[in-house]
Amino acid sequence: MSKIMPGVLPALSTALAILYAADRLLKLAAVRHFFARPQPPAPAAWPSVTLIQPITRGAHDLANVLACRAALRYAGPVQHLLVVDGSDAATLTHCAAWQTAHPDRDVTVFTATGAGAIATKVEKMQCALPHARGEVLCFVDDDVALRPDALAQLVTHLQQPGVGATFGLACYTNWRNVPSSLLSGFVNANALLSYIPLTYLTEPYTITGHFFALRRRDFAAIGGLDGLAGAQRIDDDHELARRVRRAGLRCVQTPVIYDVHNDLATLADYANQMRRWFVIPKQTMAPQLTPGEQAVSLLGSLGNLLLPLLALLTLAARSRRALAHLFASTALFAAVYGWSERRWLQRATPPHRWPWVIAAAFLAPLQALAALLGGDTFTWRGVRYRLHRDGRLERLSP
Q1: Going by C-beta distance under 8 Å and a sequence separation of 6 or more, which residues neighbour residue 278?
Q2: DSSP states along 191-250
Q3: Per-residue confidence at 1, pLDDT binned at 50, 70, 90?
Q4: Predicted confidence (pLDDT) per residue in 129-143, tens digit
Q5: Cβ–Cβ < 8 Å for 217, 181
């Protein structure tokens, strides 16, 4: 092929390298502007907050996660509601010990049993809701280590006129092994550069479900989580965003950064998680977006494919020019990643894990493409499921 078109492939590699540089630099400029914007003023009176915390059996790094919850700096009352599976004695004991160790905190530990032996996340959240007293409801996953000011920042943005829900940005911190490093590298390379530039083109049309907040009165007015648990739906964050927007309120991306400790044991776990992450929005979110929102989402994602495309083109062209473009583009990826990580995520990838960050830059876009083109099934906790467009899960394997 390179002999048939000796000048075409190197020229195409030049074009791809220019497009990739433009994509990175424009997104970086958007991120820089986003974090430089003045923050809303703190509320005159801080509203009370209920922190709803569903906890999965065998949650990793739970001790650190709970320690971070205790270290939150918030000027108003905070109610902690922890919901654990009734059969999960180890986690229940751990949470009860944390409650005892912090008598100055308003902490209640509940047990929940869903349709199966293990309650779903939505079932656990619904178990806690009748006991919530806060003016603001804040939902947080069990692998999220909140930074001290995270809750105050999220609530401050929620107090702005017309805002119905606020959410933050994830920084993945698990570099224990290769699968976890691939996942952390993928998220940290893309969280800022994917979500933030979109806010300059359209209002957010979903909520990042790790850590988000709504006023309790708004949550009740939009129907809360009604109809989600019984139908075994897992698109609670997308559905909540739709309900917020239907009520004429906005979902707001905030500059709140939180740490996520997601531990993966094998490369198969990594592949399954990546597939799940892309199948879920493809099935439950994308079909309900407007054509304009779909176009913006596609535009924001296409830049990630340029690096693996450039690598494939370099293999086909076998020219020094194409190879130089590939090295230059990879160096640009690394520079933007390193700058974003230290400047805004305020974390640092361990030096010996950098090769996996680079590997994720080439591998993850292809995994995303395969998931988007490859049907509606995925594996979750060892069970194969089909995800329907209404958010329902159909179990395929015993």
Answers
A1: 367, 368, 371, 372
A2: HHHHHHHHTTTS---S--TTEEEEEHHHHHHTTTTTTTTTTTB--HHHHHHHHHHHTT-E
A3: very low
A4: 999 999 999 999 999
A5: no
Contact 231, 35 (CB under 8 A): no
For residue 173, give the 3-state DSSP assignment: coil
- Find tokens 């490859």 and name the residue: 374
Measured between alpha carbons, how far is 17 from 303 in angstroms, rounded to an integer? Answer: 11
Residue 207 corresponds to which tokens in the numbers above? 């909520």
Distance in angstroms (rounded) separating the CA atoms of residues 172 and 260: 5
Alpha carbon of 297 to those of 226, 292, 305, 318: distances in Å? 28, 9, 14, 33
Both tokens of 168, joined, read 């933050």
Contact present, 277 and 270 (Cβ < 8 Å) = no
Give the Cβ contact number of residue 229 at 10 Å: 20
| DSSP letters spanning 315-346 | HHH--HHHHHHHHHHHHHHHHHHHHHIIIII-
Tokens of 307: 């690096």
Adjacent-strand bridge partners of 109? 82
| Residue 254 · residue 153 · CB < 8 Å | yes
Calculate the CA dihedral of residues 390, 393, 394, 398 and round it to 10 degrees.
180
- Mean pLDDT of the region 294-299: 86
User: Sign (positive/negative) of CA torsion 124, 125, 126, 130?
Assistant: positive
What are the φ/ψ torsions at residue 326 (nearest 5 degrees)? -65, -45
The candidate with the shortest Cα–Cα distance to 219, out of 235, 239, 234, is: 239
- pLDDT surpasses 60 at 261: yes
pTM strictly above 0.70? yes
Q: Is the dihedral of CA 326, 328, 331, 332 positive or negative?
A: negative
In contact, 211 and 140? CB cutoff 8 Å: yes
Identify whether the C-beta of residue 160 lies closer than 8 Å to the C-beta of residue 252.
Answer: yes
Rounded Cα distance between 305 and 205, Å, is 23
CA dihedral in degrees (122, 123, 126, 127; nearest 10)?
Answer: -140
Beta pairing, strands 383-387 & 250-260: unpaired
Q: How far is the C-alpha of 330 from the C-alpha of 358, rounded, in Å?
A: 8
